[in-house]
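Let's practice the habit of predicting before peeking. Look at the sequence and jot down your guess about where helices and strands might fall. Then scroll down.
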Amino acid sequence: MLRRLLTYFKPYKGLLALDLVCAFLLAGFDLFYPTITGKIIDIYIPRQMLQQLVFWLCALLGLYLLKAVCKYVVTFYGHAMGVRIQTDMRRQVFQKLQELPFSYFDKNKTGVIMSRIVGDLQDISELTHHGPEELFITAVTLTGSFLILSRSSLPLTLIIFAFIPAIVAAAGWKKRKMNRAFALMRRTVGEMNADLESSIAGIRVSRAFTGEEHESGRFEHANQTYRQSREYGYRAMGEYYTLLYLLTDLLYWATLAGAAVFTFYGSITPGMLVQYILYVSLFMNSTKRLVDFAEMYEMGMTGFARFLEILDCDSERELPGAPALPPVRGEIAFQNVSFSYEGEGEEDGKAVLRHLNLTVEAGQKVAVVGPSGSGKTTLCHLVPRFYDTTEGQILVDGRDITQVSLPSLRRQVGIVQQDVFLFPGSFRENIAYGRFDATPEEIEDAARRANIHDFILTQPQGYETLVGERGVRLSGGQKQRIAIARVFLKNPAILILDEATSALDNTTELLIQEALDELCKGRTTLVVAHRLSTIKGADKIVVLTEEGIQEEGTHQQLLERDGLYTRLYNSQFAAQG
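Done guessing? Here is the structure:
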């Protein structure tokens, strides 16, 4: 996993080199000061060597100014490198999300995905910036300190550095607990974000059903779970810091005691004593850097592991080098199609569709009706390959849809669903989603044909008026007509209407139905219908149940058979009467 993280540094080798060079100079400056201090105390002051004393004091001043420049480079350019790596990762994970199958989003909450994109990548950014320089500075400082001090007194140096294995052992002892704690912390914050996103998105429903207390209870549970995970993490961190700081203090005490004894017996000079104490202070700072790096490493690598979980998910299956689907007439053939959402067949999961065979002629309007849960919407989702069949194949104009590129297939399929999603932009931007290169005239023509143009003109800024998040400022009928305008603009050969009018009142439904009838002209149309009155004019009606296709025919033919369709039709109109 670490090797994969290092690959993200490749585009920024220059920045990384500059950062490490300046970090090396910073460590060198820190190593230089105790040595000069020892010489000043032992040589220049006792021997009254004023010229050398002034020279080295001026040299130290100049080095401090150079140190300030290096500190600026490390702080600014190091962070800039971390942010650029974070930007690359965010771009990569967003592109991956665009390629993941719908089943991934069926199984993962939006808040958890958002947490991985935002929170985890921030921790990774901190690691990619501070990690290399902190590790480099620490390594240079410890190595340099050991070499310099060994020249003064090897026995005392070995005593001091004997504490390093203890510090490393302590880090290894607490690392596993800390790792588990931070992994749990990431999971709980993702779950809390998901619950919060769900509560905010459904606030109108919760208030309509006076469910505020219930939602508060749900959030409080998630909030307390998050608090407990944070406390567990901080307890592990506290144990880690406490042990390491205790060892650091013991190191300082051992240095002072040992240096004092060596000085008392004349093995080292007073200047060397001061030099040792300064180097130990430097060594202690390096130890604290290691503590901070360990915390940063755990959080960053935990976030990187969650980041890789998304990248390593299987993308939508597409034949390598698949040819584009040429413009089609729109004939659709379902041949022995079976499907289950688990994707493992009928043995491991309940099959939604079983060995279904159906042909939709080009330009034909076919309605699919049946009880809830019979697979009507699933059948339609298989055409643009939102899901892939478990068995069998689907042909469009005689070509297997798994053998052509996904974009070329989906460009020729238009969908109008019951639940319309609008982006938080303007009317123009939402309609233009049907075809991004459309001209303003084409967008307005699509709006006219969808019977929404006149309404848009009544808005304060016309087509530039913002629709609000998910179109919150619009009625259901208005959102539906924007969705229809999108499809007019897209101009696909195949049209799928998934209960497009089932949630509308009768007056709005008539207005929408006019736009839909215009939209269906000259296109192969699959209609999933709840209101059977809207599909009387279909060329063919398919009655679908959990057992498969029960009946096929026109509205009149099915009524004459007096089967399931007749019972559905009569029960619906009896309820209306």
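How did you do? Residues 343-348 have pLDDT under 50 and may be disordered.
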